[in-house]
Every structure is written in C-alpha cells, then in structure tokens.
Design a protein that fits this description.
- The chain is an alpha/beta fold.
- It has one domain (2-256): Ribonuclease Z/Hydroxyacylglutathione hydrolase-like (Metallo-beta-lactamase, Chain A), CATH 3.60.15.10.
- The chain has helices at 55-61, 77-80, 103-112, 114-117, 209-219, 235-241, and strands at 2-7, 37-41, 46-49, 69-71, 97-101, 129-133, 139-141, 144-151, 158-165, 168-173, 192-196, 223-227, 246-248, 254-256.
- The longest helix is centred in the last third of the chain and has 11 residues, at 209-219.
- Bound molecules: zinc ion (ZN) (3 copies).
Length: 257
C-alpha cells in the first residue's frame, strides 16, 4: 500500500492570505501546505480521501487522472469544496463514481451538489456519484478494506479511516479534537497513523501538535505523522520536538506501507 499526501494544511492553507508570519514567509517548501487530502493506493486501487478546494492543483501536480472511489471524513468545506474538480476523473468513466461518507456528510453533499446526485444527471462526463452511507461500518473498495473511526471534531459528525491491504494498515484522521474510548482500539498499533496537529497552542476543535504526540504515543503506530497543520507549525521545529517515530507530513510526501 502507498499513501500520497496531496495536501497537509488546514482550512486556510499555508501561507495564509495576507499573513507575514515566519512560517507564511518561510522559504522552506515543507511549510507550503495545500488543504488536507490523501490518495491511498494498492497496485490496482486508488482511493481519494476528501475533495478539498485545492484538488485541481493537486491532481495537476501529481498527474492524478483517475480514482476508483472517493471517501469523505466530514462536511467542512476544506474537505468537500473541490467536488466539482472530480469531473476530470469521470470523463472516461462509464460507471458511476463510488462515493462513501457518513450520514451527515452525505446529506450535506446531496444538498450542496444537488445536480450531481439528481436523477436527471445522466450526462456521462459529469460526476455521477454512486453514493454509500457507510453508517460507521467497514466496507471494501477493490483490494483495500476501509474501517470508519468515529471521532469528535467541532459540532459535525466526523470520521477518520483505517485502510488495510496485504496485512498492512494506515490510519488517517485529519480533523479530531477527542478520540472516543470506543474508537481507540481501531487506531491502536497501526503500521502508519497520520493525525490532526493543527497548532502549537491548544485549539477548541483540533488537536495541537503536543496533544497529537501524546495521543500518538498511547496508540503506538510504527510511524506517526501530524497533518492538517496551520501556520503556527514550522516544519523543522515540529520535527525536532516530535518523538523519533513521528514527523510532520508535507505536501507530496509518499509513504510506502
Ligand atoms: Zn502566517
Ligand atoms: Zn473540519
Ligand atoms: Zn479540516
């Protein structure tokens, strides 16, 4: 299994428009962050997680021309607003595009992109989703098993996901404030885990870098990454303060699992 970080930034991206702080003006390319999204791939299956507002740029940058399915973590706009750019993955498809989300996020997508979900949408070149409400239950896409992991984040229903293929596991939780007890075993002891590390200070809807590191040590993956980072997080500084099995993710990072 292979994971490509298409974007490692929070909702504003980094640099933040109009900001002159040290990270926003940094010349380190690892401090340039598009909105958070990953591509999870086996040899035969490619899954896009979230359609962020930077999807067009991410697809061009990585020559991403086809996906087998899209999965959504939650309905916030930094995870959904690039929906329309998925047209590029549908021009050559005859089948509908498999789309997986929780109940609340799916309702939001149906409202926001009503024309795509409409019965009247028969144009092959447009996104015709085959929508699945996973209701928190595991499902399979191609040769990758996917397990939703319910987490607490802001006031919206939010999921992380664990992907399993050929005995390997990858957990992805870009937006989280609290990991409920019942979800904890699902994230325990994975090969790779990438989780929200928004800020250097405490935040009311996201984990800080230090809180991420604390939780990560309890969950004990072989390798851990922080992602969905904002402009208070400097790549080099965060790397120095994190335990040795951890690192900040960055745009374009590819992890073989
Ligand atoms: Zn800044
Ligand atoms: Zn969010
Ligand atoms: Zn977000």
């Amino acid at each position: 299994m292979k994971v490509l970080f298409l974007g490692s930034g929070t909702s504003t991206g980094v640099p933040v428009i109009g900001c002159r702080c040290a990270v926003c003006t940094s010349l380190n390319p690892r401090n340039k962050r598009l909105r958070a999204s990953v591509l999870v791939q086996s040899e035969t299956t490619a899954i896009l997680v979230d359609s962020c507002p930077d999807l067009r740029q991410q697809a061009l940058r990585h020559n991403l021309t086809a996906i087998d399915a899209v999965i959504y973590t939650h309905e916030h706009l930094d995870h959904t607003a690039g929906f329309d750019d998925m047209r590029a993955f549908c021009w050559h498809r005859t089948e509908r595009l498999p789309l997986y989300a929780g109940t609340s996020c799916l309702a939001h997508l149906r409202r926001m992109f009503a024309w795509a979900f409409s019965e009247k949408n028969t144009y092959q070149g447009y996104i015709r989703p085959h929508a699945h409400d996973h209701e928190g239950r595991p499902f399979v896409i191609g040769d990758i098993e996917v397990t939703p992991v319910k987490v607490e984040h802001a006031t919206v229903e939010t999921y992380g996901y664990v992907f399993r293929h050929a005995g390997r596991s990858f957990g992805y939780v870009p937006d989280i404030k609290v990991l409920p007890e019942c979800s904890r075993p699902l994230l325990q002891g994975l090969d790779v885990l990438a989780m929200d590390g928004l800020t250097t200070k405490e935040h009311h809807t996201h984990l800080s870098v230090a809180q991420n590191a604390e939780l990560m040590q309890l969950l004990a993956p072989a390798r851990g990454f922080i992602t969905h980072c904002g402009h208070s997080v400097d790549y080099d500084e965060a790397r120095r303060m994190l335990p040795s099995f951890m690192a900040p993710a960055y745009d374009g990072l590819e992890v073989q699992i």
